[in-house]
Structures are given as C-alpha cells and as structure tokens.
Amino acid sequence: MDNGSQQESSDLHVHHLPIASVIGVEDRTEEADDAAVDYHDDSSEGQDEVSNKRMKRHTDDQIKHLESVFERCTYLGGNQRVELAKKLGMEERQVKFWFQNRRTRKKMHDERQEGMWLQEENDVLHAENKVLKEAMWANICFTCGSPVVPAIPTVQHQYLSFQNMRLADELQHATAVFNMVAQDADVGLATSVPFD
C-alpha cells in the first residue's frame, strides 16, 4: 500500500471544511489545562534514544488557537494539519497528536458526564421503586396515600366464581369416570387375549 492510499484511508473521517475557516477562527477558549503537553516519538528524525520520547509544552496562544479549531472541527485532514502547524509554528505531528489527545479527553469527559447522569437516574428509580414496594406491602393507594379497601365482590364476579367451581367439579367427575372405563377396558383385554 503506498503512502497516497494510506493518507486517503486515514482521512476518511475528516470533515472537509475550508482550511481558512478552520484555522482562522477567533480565540474563544479558556480551557488550557493539561492540553499543553504533547507526547510523541521523534525516532524517525534520527535523534538519540534519550530524546525519542519527550514532552513539548505548547504556548497558551497555541493552545487557545488549537482549542478554537477543535470546537469547529474535531478531525483535521493532512493539508489542514500542515497549514495549521505552519500558522502556529509547530510540527504537523504535534498538531496531529494534540488533536488525538484532545479527542480522547473529550470522549472521557463525555463518558464521565453520561455515567454521572445515569447514576443520578438510577438513584431516582431506586427511590421510586422503594416507595412503591413500601406502599404495596402496607396496602396504601399509590395515588392518594389512603389505605386500600378490598373491593366488594360484584354479582357477576360471584356468578363467575360459582361457574368456575361447578366446571372444576364436572372435570374432576369426568376424569374419574374416564379412568374407571380405561381400567375396565385394560382388565377386559387382559382376560380375553390368549397367551401363547
């Protein structure tokens, strides 16, 4: 695979915005905490092992500008990274790694926020569940909080209960008759079949 096709495949998720609109935005970001640190490997540049991994601090202005670009576009293409790096006096790799780190921090922040929201929602649901269980065991109306009075059986309910008992008795009687007939048939078959 040549470098051109690698570049195309790595830029599949890039939002293609005009470069000037991405890097020429106003500085509006106040967040510049640990975004100033950039870790990267310079081994391809042929430097000593000691300086292979080093920490480079970015200036406050660079960070503010990177943050403002990140607000508008979280993924930069190769050309956009190169132009932004030139404008800020940075290496293209520094811009690339800064954006990777910033996306990771944003994802972690969003997941933490979602986790806190889900925990709060879970706590509310547990509290509601506890109240409902207590009301159910105490026979209290969920709506008004007054004691639940058992319903007086209606005439139709009494009639259906009576029909249910009558049908259960009929089923029991029919099952007993069937079992007797089946036993008699088995006994009759056993006496009429000759043994060889």
From TrEMBL:
Residues 51-110 bind DNA. SUPFAM superfamilies: Homeodomain-like. Residues 28-55 are annotated as: Disordered. Coiled coil: none annotated. It comes from the Eukaryota. The keyword Phosphoprotein does not apply. Keywords: DNA-binding, Homeobox, Nucleus, Transcription, Transcription regulation. InterPro entries: HD, HD-Zip_IV, Homeobox_CS, Homeodomain-like_sf, HTH_motif. Its main location: nucleus. Pfam families: Homeodomain (PF00046). One of its GO terms (molecular function) is DNA binding. It is found in: Nucleus. Residues 49-109 form the Homeobox domain. One of its GO terms (cellular component) is nucleus. PANTHER family: HOMEOBOX-LEUCINE ZIPPER PROTEIN MERISTEM L1 (PTHR45654), HOMEOBOX-LEUCINE ZIPPER PROTEIN ROC6 (PTHR45654:SF111). This is Homeobox domain-containing protein. The lineage of its organism: Eukaryota, Viridiplantae, Streptophyta, Embryophyta, Tracheophyta.
